[in-house]
Each structure stands twice: as C-alpha cells, then as structure tokens.
Design brief:
Elements: E1 2-8, E2 11-17, E3 25-31, H1 41-45, H2 48-54, H3 62-80, E4 99-102, H4 104-107, E5 114-120
Antiparallel strand pairs: 1-2, 3-5, 4-5
C-alpha cells in the first residue's frame, strides 16, 4: 500500500493506493491560501516559470494561485521522495505528468483549500520536476 498525508487549516487529507506495486509512489498535499502571503514567498517557493504564470493576477486571486502551486509542489516532492531537501524554487510543477489538482468534491475539503496529488507507478516516470516535465 502507498500512503500520503497532509494537514492544513485544521483539516487532514489522506491518500492511499491499495495493492500498489513496489515502485508506486504517491504524494498528496493541501494548503491554506492564507499561509502564502508572506514577503518573499515567491522567491522562496516558486520557480521562474511559476512566477511568470502569476505575474498578471490581481491581488485577490494571488493567494489561491500560490496555494495551488505550493500544494502541487509539496505533493510532487513527497512523491519523488525528495521532500524539502530540494529547494522548492528549483522545481517547476506547472506541467508534471502524474500530478493534478484535487477539487472539493473529490476531497471533502473546504473550497478555499488547495489540494493536489502526485502518483507514479509502473510504466510512469516520476522525473525530477525541475524542468516542468517528467
């Protein structure tokens, strides 16, 4: 079995793959947009292409977009096993195979929380995520 867990905003999200092949890797993450508004977040957490993708967003949309990218990044880094030993700003998660956003209908989480899942298994290449490809 492959398991991954994340907590944010008083909520917990658990993902599992039952009867997973030995090479199956799983990562899940949730993020509260209110935690992404600190000075320096973009430089610390986002790759250049991700910062570029956010450049035209209005201030009211920016926290949710940052949270979405951070949830994707954490899910990806959990799945690869790298975790935060890798500088988050060195990993571009805009278009990684096996990585996708999760909506409230799939998770049961409040709509304001961002959630993402990354899955790699037989026949899939987890890649490094460093170039936005896998």
């Amino acid at each position: 079995m492959a398991l991954s867990l994340s907590r944010a905003g008083g909520w917990t999200l658990l993902a599992a793959v039952v009867d997973a092949a030995p090479e199956t890797r799983l990562g899940i993450d949730i993020e509260d947009p209110s935690r992404t508004g600190f000075d320096g977040f973009d430089a610390l957490a986002l790759a250049p292409a991700e910062r570029l993708a956010l450049r035209d967003l209005t201030a009211d949309l920016l926290p949710a977009a940052r949270a979405r990218l951070w949830a994707r990044k954490e899910a990806w880094l959990k799945m690869t096993g790298e975790g935060l030993r890798t500088a988050p700003s060195s990993v571009d998660v805009l278009e990684c195979a096996g990585l996708r956003d999760l909506g409230p209908a799939e998770t049961g989480l409040p709509a304001h929380l961002a959630a993402a899942v990354a899955l790699s298994g037989p026949g899939q290449d987890a890649g490094s995520g460093g170039s936005g490809s896998s």
